[in-house]
Each structure stands twice: as C-alpha cells, then as structure tokens.
Design a protein that fits this description.
5 helices; binds cytidine-5'-triphosphate; alpha/beta; globular; eight-stranded mixed beta sheet; Rossmann fold; 217 residues
Length: 217
C-alpha cells in the first residue's frame, strides 16, 4: 500500500520576514506516517513547516514544503500512484494577495491586508480520485460538527472524515493526545476516546486498512 499524507500547517509569506500561518504542530500527521510504516506501507509525507524530526523509517519519504501551493504541487505529483490519500494538514485557506519584496514598514494606525483563496488540495485531488483509491480527510468544527463534517466528506470526495474535537481538553492542536470521531459515507460514526496521538494513529491506520480492503477487495 502506498500512502500520500499531508501534514502540518502551511506558511503564506507576506514579506521577507513575515507569514500567515496556524498553530498545527504536525504531530497527528507524523504519527500517522509512522503507523502506516509500522504495517509495511510506503508513505510520501508532504509536510508543512514543523518542529518535528524527519521520520527515520526507510518506508517514509518526507517532502518539506512551505505554502499551500507548494503542498498541492508535491501532493498532486504523488496522488495518481498512491492507493490511500490522507489529508491531515492544516492548510491556510487564504494567502496575501501580494508578497512584498521588502519588509513592510510600520505606517498608520491600521493595516488592511487583501487575501486570496488558496487551492483546496483535498477537494481538487478528490475530483481525480479513481474507484480503487481511498481518501481520508480531517475536519475541525466548532458548531454542528457532525453535519459540517459529513458535508465536507461529500464535497471533497472522502471515504472517511476524522472529526477533531475542540471542546475536550487535551485534544487537538499542540497536544500529545487527541479525541476524534470518524464518519463514513453511510453516515456511520465511530468514536475514539482521548488517547495518545501515536496510539490513535495506529487505530486509524487499522480502520483504513480494514475499510480499504472491504471496499476494494
Ligand atoms: N484541506 C486541503 N486544502 C485546503 C483546505 C483544507 O487539503 N486548502 C483539507 C484538510 O487537510 C482537511 C480537510 O480539507 O483534510 C478539511 O479542512 P478544513 O480546514 O476543516 O476545511 P475547509 O474546507 O477549509 O472548511 P472551513 O475552513 O470552511 O471549515
């Protein structure tokens, strides 16, 4: 099994010293890469800027990128040949419309930035997904969680969507633990209690293996 995995945040430059980004640490994505390698899968890990060491496993090829556009290009190059796609990255939805060549100097009491929409990596690749390929997305919602996650699953052509719980302490950004629900296309919901991201990654990989096998056996 060959897995394409996106992980971490993206950084969208504003000028030579500043960027727009988010607080994703990449821990869940990197734990998934390790867990896929543990079961013998080869993994292409397309990673945004993170503080984590490059995985040592010979089964994991790490491609480091910075922006959403770079992440898209690296993922698109691998997607056609991958059996499973996992979109664990926290991609910036927008980027500054222009990148200043020189450092932006302070002037005036307010500063307005114009942003333009980035490519949706999961949705764009989702349009090219073949019947024998399997896609897993992540969702982070604060209202109507299940409905929004299910909508995302259909819009982006996912087979499974992993819904992060933001309401529980110890779950999500920056923590070593996570609590998630997984939804499938039939609307079935599986709940994974709060646990170490490394442990949760192994459980998610087992679920993907089982679903991938039954869907396309
Ligand atoms: N995603 C992506 N490219 C983007 C935005 C999101 O590949 N430009 C992927 C994420 O990796 C994740 C899924 O899409 O697997 C859902 O991401 P999320 O940020 O929750 O969805 P959005 O489409 O950005 O929706 P919104 O921010 O409006 O909730």
């Amino acid at each position: 099994m060959h897995v394409l995995l996106t992980a971490g945040p993206t950084y969208e430059p504003l000028d030579p010293v500043r960027f727009l980004g988010n607080r994703s640490t990449g821990k869940m994505g990197y734990a998934l890469a390790e867990a896929f390698a543990e079961v013998g899968a080869t993994v292409t890990l397309v990673s945004g800027p993170v503080q984590l060491p490059t995985p040592a496993s010979a089964l994991i090829q790490t491609v480091r990128v910075e922006t959403a556009q770079q992440m898209y290009e690296a993922a698109a190059a691998v997607a056609p040949a991958a059996d499973v796609w996992v979109f664990a990255a926290a991609v910036a939805d927008y980027r500054p419309a222009t990148v200043a060549v020189d450092k932006i100097k302070k002037a005036g009491e307010t500063l307005t930035l114009e942003l333009i929409k980035n490519v949706d990596i999961a949705a764009t690749l989702g349009e090219t997904k073949r019947a024998e390929q399997f896609a897993v997305g992540f969702a982070l919602e604060t209202t109507n969680e299940l409905a929004h996650a299910l909508d995302k699953l259909h819009r982006k052509n996912f087979d499974l969507v992993v819904l992060n719980s933001l309401r529980d302490t110890g779950a999500g950004f920056g923590h070593d633990t996570n609590k998630v629900s997984v939804l499938d296309r039939a609307g079935q919901v599986l709940t994974f209690e709060l646990q170490a991201k490394t442990q949760l990654a192994r459980r998610l990989v087992a679920l993907v293996q089982a679903r991938f096998a039954t869907t396309y056996a």
